[in-house]
Amino acid sequence: MVTSKETRAVIIALHKNGLTGKRITARKIAPQSTIYRIIKNFKERGSIVAKKAPGRPRKTSKRQDRLLKVFQLRDRATSSAELAQEWQQAGVSASARTVRWRLLEQGLVSRRAAKKPLLSRKNIRDRLIFFKRYREWTAEDWGKVIFSDESPFRLFGTSGKQLVRRRQGERYHQSCLMPTVKHPETIHVWGCFSAKGVGSLTVLPKNTAMNKEWYQNVLREQLLPTVQEQFGDEQWLFQHDGTPCHKAKVISNWLREQNIEILGPWPGNSPDLNPIENLWSIIKRRVDKRKPRNSDKMQALIVQEWTAISQDLVQKLIESMPGRIAEVLKKRGQHCKY
């Protein structure tokens, strides 16, 4: 622990006034070991300034450290070994380990890159148009929206990674493995929710993706009953993204015939705006943790975890919408943290 200059001065002043180390300790201005060390240093050197700790002199200057930071920020994916070579070309001889320490001192830590959809200029423009349109909406306004989406669940591969604790030599122990298969079975599900809770969840036949015929049936058999149950005669809006089957003419006509008001138009490549994506992530983690061994078991777990989603969770997700809008506006249309 570093002791301030003022504290050291007080300790020495008390020492000069005849107080012993024990009596100074009783005043609780510093730990006993610190007080005795300061007094000893004063007796030996006649100074209250702490002795400079011995050690190897720093190999690089502040200017060279700033240059290293520029190299890293120019390309975030450059490895420490590559940076060491680039630094050497600038006249600094240092190891990859030194590179890592210098970057760490400047707040640059190596982390796994977050995966987000690529945003084109049109995507960014559409996102900004959408956000400016709804920037004044409160959590209460967003509570009138039913969010919907499809999501794939893959057997032996829902989460993509799994951490285990193992002893030396147990890397390939059965309990420490994450099984994989070349062509995992995929289950596609559609679900919806609002601030009032989760709505219907429907599971498509195995290895079947959504198309316009399936989607119209889902809207008729799943969405409408959810709306009636959650909103009755209250006003509400429907959110869905720009997936081709969602924009099919037959779907647009059906929605118009049902007098369903659509939120949007929803900007492309924007899963960070849809809170149902957070629900899918939670459910996938929970299902993966229970390690289903066949598609029937996985399907049952998906339904079970969907119905177990709490009202508090969906409320928090809805309440996050104003924050999502504000953050993306601040970042000029780029991805937000959600």
TrEMBL record:
Gene3D superfamilies per the UniProt record, alphabetical: Ribonuclease H-like superfamily/Ribonuclease H, Winged helix-like DNA-binding domain superfamily/Winged helix DNA-binding domain
Segments forming domain Transposase Tc1-like: 74-135
Stored InterPro entries: Homeodomain-like_sf, RNaseH_sf, Tc1-like_DDE_dom, Transpos_IS630-like, Transposase_5, Transposase_Tc1-like, WH-like_DNA-bd_sf
GO MF annotation terms: DNA binding
Stretches assigned to the Tc1-like transposase DDE domain: 145-298
SUPFAM superfamilies documented for this protein: Homeodomain-like (SSF46689)
Any one GO biological process: DNA integration
Pfam families in UniProt: DDE_3, HTH_Tnp_Tc3_2
UniProt protein name: Tc1-like transposase DDE domain-containing protein
Organism, scientific name: Xiphophorus maculatus (Southern platyfish)
Organism lineage string: Eukaryota, Metazoa, Chordata, Craniata, Vertebrata
